[in-house]
Amino acid sequence: MGSAKNTSTPSATDRRERIEEMRRAERARARRGRIAVVSVSTVVVAALIGVGAWAVTRGGDDKDTSSDAKPAGHFTYDKDGVGTWSAKLTRNHVGGKPTYPMNPPVGGDHNQVWMNCNGDVYEKPLANEHAVHSLEHGAVWVTYNDKAPQKDVEALAAKVKQTPYTLMSPIADQKDPIMLSAWGHQRTVKSAGDPAAAKFFAAFVQGKQTPEMGAPCTGGLGQ
Protein backbone atom coordinates (compact mmCIF):
# COMPACT_ATOMS: atom_id res chain seq x y z
CA MET A 1 0.00 0.00 0.00
CA GLY A 2 1.69 3.19 -1.07
CA SER A 3 2.23 6.16 1.15
CA ALA A 4 -0.06 9.14 0.72
CA LYS A 5 1.53 12.39 -0.86
CA ASN A 6 2.75 14.89 1.84
CA THR A 7 0.87 18.11 0.99
CA SER A 8 2.66 20.08 3.79
CA THR A 9 5.97 20.14 1.93
CA PRO A 10 6.26 23.51 0.04
CA SER A 11 6.95 23.36 -3.65
CA ALA A 12 9.75 25.22 -5.38
CA THR A 13 7.20 27.72 -6.68
CA ASP A 14 5.90 28.33 -3.16
CA ARG A 15 9.41 28.92 -1.89
CA ARG A 16 10.15 31.45 -4.65
CA GLU A 17 6.92 33.31 -3.94
CA ARG A 18 7.69 33.36 -0.22
CA ILE A 19 11.20 34.70 -0.82
CA GLU A 20 9.88 37.41 -3.14
CA GLU A 21 7.25 38.38 -0.55
CA MET A 22 9.96 38.68 2.11
CA ARG A 23 12.03 40.84 -0.24
CA ARG A 24 9.06 43.13 -0.92
CA ALA A 25 8.46 43.45 2.83
CA GLU A 26 12.13 44.29 3.40
CA ARG A 27 12.09 46.95 0.66
CA ALA A 28 8.94 48.46 2.19
CA ARG A 29 10.58 48.59 5.63
CA ALA A 30 13.65 50.26 4.11
CA ARG A 31 11.49 52.90 2.42
CA ARG A 32 9.68 53.61 5.67
CA GLY A 33 13.03 53.95 7.44
CA ARG A 34 14.31 56.44 4.88
CA ILE A 35 11.12 58.47 5.12
CA ALA A 36 11.42 58.52 8.92
CA VAL A 37 15.06 59.67 8.79
CA VAL A 38 14.23 62.44 6.29
CA SER A 39 11.29 63.57 8.43
CA VAL A 40 13.38 63.69 11.61
CA SER A 41 16.21 65.49 9.80
CA THR A 42 13.77 68.07 8.44
CA VAL A 43 12.44 68.74 11.92
CA VAL A 44 15.97 69.06 13.37
CA VAL A 45 17.10 71.44 10.59
CA ALA A 46 13.96 73.54 11.01
CA ALA A 47 14.58 73.73 14.75
CA LEU A 48 18.21 74.77 14.24
CA ILE A 49 17.17 77.44 11.73
CA GLY A 50 14.65 78.73 14.24
CA VAL A 51 17.25 78.86 17.01
CA GLY A 52 19.70 80.60 14.68
CA ALA A 53 17.13 83.21 13.68
CA TRP A 54 16.31 83.80 17.35
CA ALA A 55 19.99 84.23 18.18
CA VAL A 56 20.49 86.69 15.31
CA THR A 57 17.44 88.64 16.43
CA ARG A 58 18.68 88.70 20.01
CA GLY A 59 22.12 89.85 18.84
CA GLY A 60 20.52 92.68 16.89
CA ASP A 61 18.48 93.66 19.93
CA ASP A 62 21.64 93.80 22.05
CA LYS A 63 23.28 96.14 19.53
CA ASP A 64 20.30 98.44 19.37
CA THR A 65 19.87 98.77 23.13
CA SER A 66 23.53 98.98 24.13
CA SER A 67 24.51 101.67 21.65
CA ASP A 68 22.27 104.23 23.34
CA ALA A 69 24.42 104.43 26.48
CA LYS A 70 25.75 107.95 26.99
CA PRO A 71 27.41 108.55 30.36
CA ALA A 72 26.73 111.92 31.97
CA GLY A 73 29.51 114.12 33.30
CA HIS A 74 31.98 116.85 32.44
CA PHE A 75 35.69 117.62 32.65
CA THR A 76 37.20 119.32 35.66
CA TYR A 77 40.68 120.73 35.07
CA ASP A 78 43.65 120.91 37.40
CA LYS A 79 46.16 123.77 37.48
CA ASP A 80 48.24 122.07 34.76
CA GLY A 81 45.31 121.84 32.35
CA VAL A 82 44.64 118.10 32.67
CA GLY A 83 40.93 117.34 32.52
CA THR A 84 39.39 114.55 34.60
CA TRP A 85 35.94 113.22 33.71
CA SER A 86 33.61 113.82 36.63
CA ALA A 87 31.31 110.79 36.28
CA LYS A 88 32.02 107.08 36.52
CA LEU A 89 32.77 105.61 33.10
CA THR A 90 31.03 102.36 32.21
CA ARG A 91 33.09 99.50 30.78
CA ASN A 92 30.61 97.18 29.07
CA HIS A 93 31.47 95.39 25.84
CA VAL A 94 28.74 96.28 23.36
CA GLY A 95 27.93 96.02 19.68
CA GLY A 96 27.00 98.87 17.41
CA LYS A 97 28.42 102.36 17.86
CA PRO A 98 28.08 103.80 21.36
CA THR A 99 27.73 107.55 21.66
CA TYR A 100 30.14 109.52 23.83
CA PRO A 101 29.68 112.92 25.49
CA MET A 102 33.28 113.97 24.83
CA ASN A 103 35.43 114.13 21.69
CA PRO A 104 37.79 112.32 21.65
CA PRO A 105 36.13 109.90 24.09
CA VAL A 106 38.03 109.01 27.26
CA GLY A 107 35.99 105.98 28.34
CA GLY A 108 32.62 104.32 28.45
CA ASP A 109 31.07 101.27 26.83
CA HIS A 110 33.14 100.00 23.94
CA ASN A 111 33.70 97.20 21.45
CA GLN A 112 35.22 93.97 22.71
CA VAL A 113 38.13 94.38 20.24
CA TRP A 114 40.73 97.06 20.95
CA MET A 115 42.86 99.00 18.48
CA ASN A 116 46.48 97.93 18.50
CA CYS A 117 48.28 100.50 20.61
CA ASN A 118 51.87 99.34 20.74
CA GLY A 119 53.17 102.61 19.32
CA ASP A 120 50.74 102.43 16.38
CA VAL A 121 50.30 105.50 14.18
CA TYR A 122 47.15 105.46 12.04
CA GLU A 123 46.70 107.65 8.98
CA LYS A 124 42.89 107.43 9.00
CA PRO A 125 40.30 108.13 11.72
CA LEU A 126 39.52 105.27 14.11
CA ALA A 127 36.22 103.90 15.30
CA ASN A 128 35.84 105.37 18.80
CA GLU A 129 34.52 102.14 20.27
CA HIS A 130 37.79 100.34 19.46
CA ALA A 131 40.08 103.16 20.57
CA VAL A 132 38.27 103.47 23.91
CA HIS A 133 39.07 99.83 24.59
CA SER A 134 42.74 100.68 24.07
CA LEU A 135 42.43 103.39 26.72
CA GLU A 136 40.99 100.79 29.07
CA HIS A 137 44.24 98.86 28.62
CA GLY A 138 46.25 101.88 29.72
CA ALA A 139 47.08 103.51 26.40
CA VAL A 140 47.48 107.20 25.65
CA TRP A 141 45.73 108.28 22.44
CA VAL A 142 47.24 111.19 20.50
CA THR A 143 44.80 112.90 18.13
CA TYR A 144 45.04 115.90 15.81
CA ASN A 145 43.01 117.81 13.24
CA ASP A 146 43.97 119.64 10.05
CA LYS A 147 44.98 122.74 12.02
CA ALA A 148 47.92 120.92 13.61
CA PRO A 149 51.24 121.89 11.99
CA GLN A 150 52.70 119.06 9.92
CA LYS A 151 56.02 119.25 11.79
CA ASP A 152 54.21 118.63 15.07
CA VAL A 153 52.25 115.71 13.61
CA GLU A 154 55.48 114.13 12.41
CA ALA A 155 57.26 114.71 15.73
CA LEU A 156 54.37 113.23 17.70
CA ALA A 157 54.22 110.24 15.36
CA ALA A 158 57.91 109.60 16.01
CA LYS A 159 57.30 109.81 19.77
CA VAL A 160 54.35 107.41 19.59
CA LYS A 161 56.29 104.88 17.50
CA GLN A 162 58.89 104.71 20.26
CA THR A 163 56.36 104.36 23.11
CA PRO A 164 54.45 101.15 23.91
CA TYR A 165 50.84 101.63 25.01
CA THR A 166 50.26 104.61 22.75
CA LEU A 167 48.39 105.19 19.49
CA MET A 168 47.80 108.15 17.22
CA SER A 169 45.15 109.08 14.65
CA PRO A 170 43.41 112.12 13.11
CA ILE A 171 40.03 113.41 14.36
CA ALA A 172 38.78 116.16 12.06
CA ASP A 173 36.14 117.63 14.38
CA GLN A 174 37.99 117.76 17.70
CA LYS A 175 38.06 121.21 19.28
CA ASP A 176 41.83 121.73 19.43
CA PRO A 177 44.63 120.93 16.98
CA ILE A 178 46.46 118.44 19.24
CA MET A 179 44.87 116.51 22.09
CA LEU A 180 46.03 113.69 24.37
CA SER A 181 43.58 111.26 25.96
CA ALA A 182 43.78 108.48 28.53
CA TRP A 183 41.05 106.61 30.39
CA GLY A 184 39.10 109.35 32.20
CA HIS A 185 41.64 112.08 31.39
CA GLN A 186 42.38 114.51 28.57
CA ARG A 187 44.35 117.62 27.76
CA THR A 188 45.29 119.93 24.91
CA VAL A 189 48.94 120.62 24.06
CA LYS A 190 50.32 123.51 22.04
CA SER A 191 52.93 121.56 20.09
CA ALA A 192 54.90 118.34 20.00
CA GLY A 193 57.58 120.04 22.07
CA ASP A 194 55.16 121.24 24.76
CA PRO A 195 56.50 119.95 28.13
CA ALA A 196 52.90 119.12 29.05
CA ALA A 197 52.92 116.36 26.42
CA ALA A 198 55.85 114.55 28.01
CA LYS A 199 54.25 114.92 31.47
CA PHE A 200 50.98 113.44 30.21
CA PHE A 201 52.79 110.45 28.70
CA ALA A 202 54.72 109.90 31.93
CA ALA A 203 51.60 110.06 34.08
CA PHE A 204 49.11 108.10 31.98
CA VAL A 205 50.90 105.50 29.84
CA GLN A 206 49.93 102.46 31.93
CA GLY A 207 49.17 104.94 34.70
CA LYS A 208 47.17 104.42 37.87
CA GLN A 209 43.96 105.34 36.00
CA THR A 210 44.23 102.12 33.93
CA PRO A 211 41.21 99.85 34.53
CA GLU A 212 42.91 96.77 33.07
CA MET A 213 46.54 97.11 34.05
CA GLY A 214 48.84 94.90 31.97
CA ALA A 215 46.23 94.03 29.35
CA PRO A 216 47.80 93.78 25.87
CA CYS A 217 48.07 96.50 23.27
CA THR A 218 48.79 93.96 20.52
CA GLY A 219 46.56 91.26 19.05
CA GLY A 220 43.72 93.69 18.47
CA LEU A 221 42.54 95.57 15.40
CA GLY A 222 44.73 97.43 12.93
CA GLN A 223 44.05 99.46 9.80
TrEMBL record:
Instruction: Report the InterPro entries cross-referenced here.
Output: DUF3105
> Region Disordered: start and end of each range?
1-32
UniProt keyword Ribonucleoprotein, yes or no: no
Which residue stretches does the UniProt record annotate as biased composition, category Basic and acidic residues?
13-28
Which spans does this entry mark as compositional bias, Polar residues?
Answer: 1-12
Cross-referenced Pfam families, in alphabetical order? Answer: DUF3105 (PF11303)
Protein name from the UniProt record: DUF3105 domain-containing protein
Q: Which UniProt keywords apply?
A: Membrane, Transmembrane, Transmembrane helix
Membrane spanning residue stretches: 33-56
